[in-house]
UniProtKB/TrEMBL annotation:
This is GlxA family transcriptional regulator. Pfam families: DJ-1_PfpI (PF01965), HTH_18 (PF12833). InterPro entries: Class_I_gatase-like, DJ-1/PfpI, Homeodomain-like_sf, HTH_AraC, INH-QAR. SMART domains: HTH_ARAC (SM00342). It comes from the Bacteria. Keywords: Transcription, Transcription regulation. The lineage of its organism: Bacteria, Bacillati, Actinomycetota, Actinomycetes, Kitasatosporales. CDD domains: GATase1_AraC_1. Residues 214-312 form the HTH araC/xylS-type domain.
């Protein structure tokens, strides 16, 4: 088995979890499969850096002396907003030499600044996707997934999504069993699918400003198996269906039907991941009515049916 060097770039203002999350995944994989990874960290001058949260990190050395990486990982954080020009130049020169180039959160801005995302599909933290698209029009920014793979380049969304991406890379390198062992140790799911949305239905939509509409949003969340037609929801808000649909979209940014779809999908996904309930029971509890209706929704969202989703993304019990 060939050893893969993972090099993590450090800089002042880096987000600590962007560094330590993926690093712990690769370190866990190295423990499970000795010799699989050689993990190194480096800063521009080899000096310690201070994270955005105030934590001090001591690198293994300067970037100029770092070993040639198989996987070059660029984390995000406040330090990506006004990066040292020397850091961008180093990434521009060394990034293409890595077999895999990975960014976490706003680390995508450093890759984009080095021109390494031009013509590629990429993502970053949802709050910065518009900015990335505006500042780097040559990048195809996808705001929805938790991570995106485009050839040898992989970009992930905010903080914990870096763990999901690292687990996916370990599974690619060493197989599902090793990745599962690491996930169990870290008490996380083996991995969420890359095309899973970055945030929940409640966060994806804005909170309505008017109390009746906020109450309806809460009702939908708490009763996904209820009659959630526009007519029924409008009656709860004491509005006409037409007025309700228009006001709901104006205040939340999405239609009532789309919001209901997201809530039901999220509810079903959580039941598949967290319970042993049967598919038919989950389909009723989530408001789909039939397993076939839920299967169609899962295939549209995740490219796989509920049973396969459960098999792939629900962690086995720790023994």
């Amino acid at each position: 088995m060939a050893q893969r060097t993972v090099l993590v770039v450090l800089f002042d203002g880096v987000q600590s979890l962007d560094v330590t999350g993926p690093l712990e995944v690769f370190a866990g994989a190295e423990e499970a499969a000795p010799g699989a990874y050689r993990i190194r960290t480096a800063s521009l001058d080899g000096r310690p850096v201070r994270t955005s949260g105030g934590l001090g990190l001591v690198p293994d050395g300067p970037l100029a002396e770092a070993p040639a990486p198989h996987t070059l990982l660029v984390p995000g954080g406040e330090g990506t907003r006004r990066p040292d020009a020397r850091l961008i130049e180093w990434i521009r020169g060394h990034g293409p030499r890595a077999a895999r180039l990975v960014s976490v959160c706003t680390g995508a801005f450093l890759l984009a600044g080095a021109g390494l995302l031009d013509g590629r599909r990429a993502t970053t933290h949802w709050a910065h996707c518009d900015e990335l698209a505006r500042d780097h029009p040559a990048v195809e920014v996808d705001a929805d997934p938790i991570y995106v793979r485009d050839g040898p380049v992989a970009t992930s969304a905010g903080v914990t999504a870096g763990i999901d991406l690292a687990l996916a890379l370990v599974e690619e390198d060493l197989g599902r069993d090793i990745a599962l062992a690491v996930a169990r140790h870290l008490v996380v799911f083996l991995r969420r699918p890359g095309n899973q949305a970055q945030f929940s239905a409640q966060l994806a939509a804005q909170t309505a400003g008017r109390a009746p509409l906020r109450d309806v949003q809460q009702w939908i969340t708490e009763h996904p198996d209820a009659d959630l037609s526009v007519e029924a929801l409008a009656a709860r808000a004491r509005l006409s269906p037409r007025h309700f649909a228009r006001a709901f979209r104006a205040e939340t940014g999405i239609t009532p039907g789309r919001y209901v779809d997201r809530v039901r999908l999220e509810h079903a996904r959580r039941l598949l991941e967290d319970t042993a309930d049967g598919i038919e029971e989950i389909s009723r509890a989530s408001g789909y009515g039939t397993p076939e209706a839920m299967r169609r929704a899962f295939i549209r969202a995740f490219g796989t049916g509920p049973a396969e989703y459960r098999r792939r993304f629900r962690p086995a019990p720790v023994t």
